[in-house]
Specification:
The strands form 7 sheets. Strands 1, 23, 24, 25 and 26 form a 5-stranded mixed beta sheet that branches. Strands 5, 6, 7, 8 and 9 form a 5-stranded antiparallel beta sheet that branches. Strands 10, 11, 12, 13 and 14 form a 5-stranded antiparallel beta sheet that branches. It contains 2 helices and 32 strands. The longest helix has 9 residues. It is globular and about 55 Å long. The chain has one domain: YVTN repeat-like/Quinoprotein amine dehydrogenase (Methylamine Dehydrogenase, Chain H), CATH 2.130.10. A hairpin with a 5-residue loop joins strand 15 and strand 16. The chain is mainly β.
Length: 393
């Protein structure tokens, strides 16, 4: 086992950091506290139909099915796939047709991508032999057309692109893949149109931008974001990109806060990034936001950290400029986490991957104020810290 893989294996036992490249760990070992939220109006309702979600469980080598109650948002556990030792699945992606799900396995023995058939009840069945992956595969995303799976390779400094067979789910690496993506690419995001792809590089604090055309990635820009740049989110109109910088320092009067959120304008023609005036944006207190998401209404940005002190930050988006303004009472001290922050597409519910609670913290947020209220039963234990989460909607 290489030194980097051994270090990553040792870090898997720590419950204070999301899974990130070892190069970043030297920067990012700091005390992570929590935060909270408050916002403006939203058109989304908490009512909806029951549906499913999935999370990877890196320590167990499996994928867990989650059932989400459409009326309350409560999570109950469904079936878990058979555990496979030494796979450590983290990245996860669901085909738009809901026929196949992909789990990215970073292993000291063989990096790979597992392919699962999705049954009508949401249960998963492994199909075929896992597809060989790049060096240290980490995060995954499928383009909106369902034709391509993109995977960051943290130790290969590149992104692999695979074409997807719509009938069998089989993967075939496209010509020219993997594509260079600067040092230790971690998180990956594709815009709603499918035209632009962004990757964070925590070790150098940058974001790398690409265009995507017929499965080919072409780099357009690489911009400085902030120390440890990790989680990303884009608004639905794909005008603005927001990046969490968990280890960034801030000038007075925010010098006691560790970490901030960078905001970027997205060029509609090329996808190139330019810094929003006033960026980076930070909270009045808190440490280490590594997960970030945008409310489906495009009005609010939420950034989350481990712990329960100042653990959820909420900002209102200025529509004309993309600038962020902290909302009333933000940050909030509630149970949160830094593994992921996802908003349920069926309603105004925020789900947060928590390394401290070994599960998922769930909140509804007031459509007028954004104020969070814990869903009954939250946090919902998954037995061990989850990796990534994807909804079936």
């Amino acid at each position: 086992m290489s030194f980097l893989r051994a270090a990553r294996a040792a870090l898997a036992g720590l419950n204070c950091l999301p899974r990130i490249p070892v190069a970043f760990v030297v920067v990012a070992v700091f005390v992570l506290a929590g935060l909270s939220l408050s916002c403006g109006s939203s058109s989304h309702s908490t009512s909806g139909h029951n549906h499913n979600a999935y999370v990877t469980l890196p320590a167990r080598g499996s994928v867990l099915l989650l059932h989400i109650n459409g009326a309350t948002g409560a999570i109950t556990l469904g079936a878990e796939t058979p555990q496979v030792q030494n796979t450590s699945p983290t990245g996860i992606a669901l085909l738009p047709s809901k026929k196949f799900l992909y789990a990215v396995n970073s292993s000291s023995f063989a990096d790979s991508i597992s392919i699962f058939n999705v049954a009508s009840d949401g249960t998963l069945a492994l199909t075929g032999t896992p597809t060989p992956a790049g060096n240290g595969p980490n995060d995954a995303v499928i383009d909106p057309s369902g034709k391509y799976l993109l995977v960051t390779n943290s130790f290969g400094d590149n992104v692999s692109v695979y074409s997807i067979d719509g009938s069998s789910g089989a993967l075939t690496e496209v010509a020219g893949s993997p594509f260079p993506a600067n040092s230790n690419p971690a998180e990956i995001l594709i815009t709603p149109s499918g035209k632009f792809v962004y990757v964070t590089n925590p070790g150098i604090g940058r974001v790398t931008a690409f265009t995507l055309s017929n499965g080919v990635l072409t780099q357009t820009t690489s911009v400085l974001s902030g120390t440890g740049a990790f989680g990303m989110a884009v608004d639905g109109s794909e005008r603005f990109l927001y990046v969490a910088n968990p280890a960034a320092s801030n000038p007075p009067p925010f010098s006691s806060t560790i970490g901030n959120i960078s905001g970027f304008n997205i060029d509609p023609g090329t996808g190139a990034l330019s810094t929003i005036q006033g960026s980076p944006f930070t909270a009045t207190n808190g440490k280490g936001p590594s997960a970030v998401t945008v409310d489906p209404s495009g009005r609010f940005v939420y950034a989350t950290t481990p712990g329960s002190s100042f653990s959820i930050w909420c900002f209102a988006i200025t529509p004309s400029t993309g600038q962020l303004v902290a909302v009333t009472n933000s940050p909030f001290s509630l149970t949160a986490g830094g593994l992921f922050a996802r908003i349920d597409p069926t309603g105004n519910r925020l789900f947060i991957g928590s390394q401290d609670a070994n599960g998922i913290a769930g909140y509804t947020y007031d459509p007028s104020t954004g104020s969070p209220t814990a869903i009954t039963g939250s946090p919902f234990s998954t037995g061990t810290a989850p990796g990534k989460m994807v909804f079936s909607e």
